[in-house]
Amino acid sequence: MNTSEFPIYSLNREEKREHLLTLLDRNFGEWVQDGIIKQTGFGQPICWHYHPHSWSVQCGGMLTPMRVFTHHLDDALVRRKALGPCESDSDLRKALRAYSGAQGVSNFSAGAAAALYHRYLPSAGGVVWDCSAGWGGRLLGALVSPRVKKYVGTEPSSLTHAGLMEMKNELPYLLNVMGYPSPIVDLYRIGSEDFRPKPGSLSMCLSSPPYAGHEKYSDEPTQSYIKFPTNELWMNEYMRMTLENCRGGLKHDGFLVMNLADTKAYPTLTTDFLALAKRTGFKLVETLQLALSKMVGTDKQSASHKLEPVYAFRKS
Amino acid sequence: METTVAPKEQPMLPPAGKADPLAALLPASVAKNASNMAVSKSQTQAKSARVYERLDAKATKSAFTKLDKMLSGLASQVAYTLKQMTPYLAQMQALLSQRGKDRRNVLKDADLPSWTEYAREFAAKLDCSERTIRDHITKLRRGGRKAEPKSKPITPLDRRQQSALYKKSLAADAVVAAVKNGGDVSKAVAKYEKVTVSPVKAPKLFVIPNTFDCAGCRDMQAGIAKLAKSHPDWTDERLAEESGTSLIIVRQARVRFLVWRAA
C-alpha cells in the first residue's frame, strides 16, 4: 500500500475481462427474491475505473474521500487499523470512505440493474432509457443483460459523460471478443428534463436520480441541483419534466422503474415523488427493495442490509 | 484450422447446430426448458450456461459424463472435424467454467476437472493446441467471425519504406567501413546517396500500447502527472494526445498523483 498516491481503480484489459466474467451468464431472474433485489458489488471496479473524478464528489455536505486523503490520512489509517488490517489499496479506500464525517458516492449495482431489466423487459428484449446515467452501473448491467437491445443514457456532467463514453467505446468490443453480444449504446450529454425520446420507442425507463442536491456531481450549470435549487423546484420542475419525457417515450405497456430515497435535506422525497408520478399518469404496480452494502464496522454476519425502495410504474 | 481424426463409423448425433445439443445432454427436467429456450446461437450459449448453473453436483457430474463420453467418442472413433465438435465443446466449457463461489463448490463436490484441464487433455487427443479449441469456440459464439482483430503494426512504414531504410543502413555501414579501412569512400558515399528514403511523419509515442489495451500503469501515470504539472495550461484532451493514451488514463493520473483540477 502506497500512501503517497491516491488509491484509484486502474484496470488493464485482463482485469476488466475478469470483472465482466463475474456478471456474465448469470440467472438474473433469481436476483429478486421476496421483493428484495440482491446486493452485489460485481463489476463495480470497472465503473470506478472510468470515473476517477468520483472521489472528489461531495455527498450530503460531508467530506469527500479525496479530502480525507489530503487532510486526514494519518487519522483515517489509525482508525481503520483499529478495525482490522490495512495493507492493500482496497483497505486504504475503505479507510477513506468510512472516515468519520466522510461519505463517498455510491453506484447502482450492475447486477441489480440487470435483474430489473430481466424483470421488466419483454423476453424478446427492448430499449431502455437511463435518465441519469451517472457512474455507469446501469450501463454495465445493460451490457451483460441479454434482454437489453438498446441502452439510451443521458448525463449532463461532462466528466461523467466522458467516462461513460469510454465505457461505451471499450466494453462492448471486449464483450464481443469474449464471445458475447452487446446492445447498441447511445449516450447524450444532456439533462433528462431536456431529453425527449422518440414517442413510443422505449420499453423501460430505469434510473436513480440524484436525490435533489444530495450528490453534487459537478458545479456545471446543467446540474439539476443548480438549475432547480430548492426541493420544490427540483421535484415540481426537474422530476415533472423528466417523468413527462419518460411517459412520452414509453410504449403503452412500458415500465418506469425508479430508485429513490428520502434524505436528511429532503425527508419527504419519496412521498412527493409518488404523488407526482400519479399526477403525471403513472400507476404504481410494484415496490421492490434494493439491498445496499452493510455499514463498515458493523458485525458482517448479523448486520442486515440497508434497503432503498425501487418503484415500478406502468403508464395508466 | 480444422483438425480431422481417422474415420471409423458414422456419427450417432444429429449434425451440429441443427438440433439443440442441450436436449440430449441435460437431465430430462432441465432439458425440456433448455430446448424451449433456443433463439439465437449466442443466446443459446448464454442460456445453456445458465441452465448448467442450476445443476447440483450430481446432475453436473451426470451432464459431464454424457458430454465427455460423446466428445471422447467423436475424438477417437468418428469422422468428425474439430469444427463439428465445437458446439459440444462449447457446452462443456459452459458446464465446467467456474463462475461464482457456488458454482465452484458444485464442481468441487462433483470432483470434475476445470475447463482448462479438460481442454488441454482434449486438445492432446486431437493433436492440436488448447488455443485452437478456444479459438473455435470463440468463433462459434461470434457467428463465424474472427476472435481477435489484428493488432496495429508498431511501425508506420510500409514494406517498401522499410526495405529502403534497411538498404540505406547497409550503405551507411559500407561508408563507415571504407573510412576505417582507408578504402574508396566516394564510391561508398555515392551508393549511400543513391538509396532514397522518403520522409514520413514520426509517430508520437507509438510504442505505447494502444489506448484500449493500456491500463495506465503507475509509471505511465507518473509521467502524465509530471507532464500535467509542467504544463498546467494543457487540457486533459491535449495531455491524452501528447501521451498517446485515453482521457480516462489522464484523469486517473491526475487523481492518483493529486494534480486534479475540475475541467
Radius of gyration of chain A: 19 Å
Give the C-alpha Rg of chain B: 29 Å
Main beta-sheet annotation of chain B = none
Order of strands in the sheet with the most strands of chain A? 1-2-10-11-9-7-4-5-6
Largest beta-sheet details of chain A = 9 strands, mixed
Series of H and E elements of chain B = HHHHHHHHHHHHH
Order of helices and strands of chain A: HEEHEHHHHEHEHEEEHHEHEE
Give the averaged pLDDT of chain A, no decimals.
Answer: 89
* Number of domain modules of chain A: 2
Structural class based on helices, strands and sheet pairing of chain A: alpha/beta
Number of helices of chain B: 13
Overall strand count of chain B: 0
Strand content of chain B: under 5%
Q: What percent of residues of chain B adopt helix (DSSP H or I)?
A: 55-70%
Number of DSSP helical runs of chain A: 11
Shape verdict of chain B: flat
Describe the secondary structure blueprint for this structure:
The complex is a heterodimer of chains A (316) and B (263).
Chain A: H1 13-21, E1 32-33, E2 36-37, H2 44-50, E3 58-59, H3 65-71, H4 73-83, H5 89-97, H6 110-120, E4 126-130, H7 137-144, E5 148-154, H8 158-177, E6 184-188, E7 202-207, E8 215-216, H9 224-227, H10 231-249, E9 250-259, H11 269-280, E10 282-291, E11 307-315
Parallel strand pairs in A: 2-10, 4-5, 4-7, 5-6, 7-9
Antiparallel strand pairs in A: 1-2, 3-8, 9-11, 10-11
Chain B: H1 21-25, H2 28-37, H3 41-53, H4 57-76, H5 82-96, H6 100-109, H7 115-126, H8 130-141, H9 159-181, H10 185-194, H11 218-230, H12 236-243, H13 247-256
